[in-house]
C-alpha cells in the first residue's frame, strides 16, 4: 500500500492539493481492484515552518506548526464520492475582550459572570463539499487549497475581529457560533462541523524579594 501511494505521487506531473491526491488514490483503488467496492482515503498535512535565526531564514531548519490540514475522501465503485476537508488544532489566544456572561444559572451555579478574561482555545473545523460523484468534479477548477486557506482566514478573522479594536466575545460558545455562521455565509456550498476546546492557561508573576540585612 505504501509503495502504491508513493508511485501514484511520483506520477503526478504537477503539484496537486491533498484532496485531489486523495481522490486520485480512491479512484485508483476502486477501479483497478475488482474486490474493492469502496475506498476511504485519509490524509493529514502537518505544516513545517522555516526557522529564523537573528532575523535570517535558516537554510535547513524548520519547526512544526500547531494546526493540521486534514481531508477524507470516500469513493464507491459506482462513482459515488464524498470529500471532507478541515483544520485541527488551530491554537488561538485573545488576551483582551473575552468574557463569560449571560449563561444559564441555577441553584448550583457558583461561577460569577465576567467581562474580562483571556480566551485560549484550539479550533477544529471540518466541511464537506457538495460533490456527489467522481463525474461531478471533472472539467471544473477545484481550488481545494485556496478554499482551505480562505476558510481558515474567515475563522481567524471572526475570532479576533479588526486589528485595533478587536471584537468582544461573551463566551466560547457565542464565538464558535459566529465563526461557523461566517464560514457558512461565505461558502454556502459547504456543510460545516466545528468545535473548540478550551486551553487551560496559568499566569505566573515573578516578584522580586529584597532582603535587608
Our measurement of the CA-to-CA distance between the termini, rounded to an integer number of angstroms, reads 74 Å
Radius of gyration: 23 Å
Strand content: 25-35%
Please, how many domains?
A: 1
**Largest sheet report:** 5 strands, antiparallel
**Portion of residues within helices:** 25-40%
Which secondary-structure class do the elements indicate?
alpha+beta
Architecture, CATH level 2?
A: Roll
Number of helices: 4
Low-confidence region ranges? 201-213
Catalytic activity: urate + O2 + H2O = 5-hydroxyisourate + H2O2
Function: Catalyzes the oxidation of uric acid to 5-hydroxyisourate, which is further processed to form (S)-allantoin.
GO cellular component, one term: peroxisome
Family: Belongs to the uricase family.
Q: Could you characterize what this model shows?
A:
This protein has 213 residues and is of the alpha+beta class. The protein has one domain (2-45, 63-103, 114-198): Roll (Urate Oxidase), CATH 3.10.270. The protein is built from 4 helices and 7 strands, in the order H-H-E-E-E-E-E-E-H-H-E. It has helices at 2-11, 18-32, 144-160, 172-186; strands at 38-45, 48-53, 56-64, 68-76, 81-94, 119-129, 190-198. A 5-stranded antiparallel β-sheet has the order 1-4-5-6-7, with helices on one face. A two-stranded antiparallel ribbon has the order 2-3. Helix 3 (144-160) runs antiparallel to helix 4 (172-186). The longest helix is centred in the C-terminal third of the chain and has 17 residues, at 144-160. The radius of gyration is 23 Å and the shape is globular.
